Amino acid sequence: MGSGSSKPASTPTSQVWTAETPVRFSQGLVDSLQSSPETDSTRTKTLELHIQARVAEELKRLQDRASRDFEELQAKISAAEDLTKKEGKSAGDTLRDLGREAVQNDVKELRKKLEQRKKLTAVDEGVEKAKSEVVKCLRENDRRPLDCWKEVENFKNEVRRLEGVWVEKIVR
Predict the structure, then answer these.
(1) At 15, is the secondary structure helix, strand, or coil?
(2) Does the CA dihedral 52-57-60-62 come out positive or negative?
């Protein structure tokens, strides 16, 4: 226990793997690799330069777009300021007017949508009566809701009848 060392005496400096079958490359490939001035570091530098060029190009495109947008917004603001100076309104009044117009347009659109929706028809009197009887019974028997089974059955029958009438209208 502890008399032998746990590490090998000498560590191998390199390890060589030998394949069971020989690997052969064509002489043309070997010649092109040996005669090529390109090394791993030059390939890395070339790739890095290519990436930097693309990033710079994209950055320039984004800056151009941002400057165009900025100029357009400045033009709109100056036009709005000229308009307010002519009308004698302050910037706050102009913003209030724009907000008021936007809200009015939204209200008009919502009204149109509401008008386009289908209107609900009135509930059948038999169903309404059965519903009110169920509610009345449940209020009277709030501790014993199972005593209202007759009223619930009447309500179910009325709903079935109403569904049957609806199906008949659709089928015809």
Answers:
(1) coil
(2) negative
CB burial class (10 A; 0-12, 13-18, 19+) of residue 154?
A: middle
131-135-139 Cα angle (round to 5): 170
What is residue 71's three-state secondary structure? helix
Residue numbers of the chain with a pLDDT score lower than 50 = none
**How many CA atoms are closer than 13 Å to the CA of 152, on its beta-carbon side?**
6
In angstroms, the Cα distances linking 112 to 99, 102, 104, 109 are 20, 16, 12, 5
| Cα dihedral 33→39→45→46 (10° resolution) | -20
Distance of CA 20 to the CA centre of its chain: 56
As a whole number of angstroms, the distance between CA 43 and CA 53 comes to 15
Predicted confidence at residue 89, as pLDDT, reads: 60
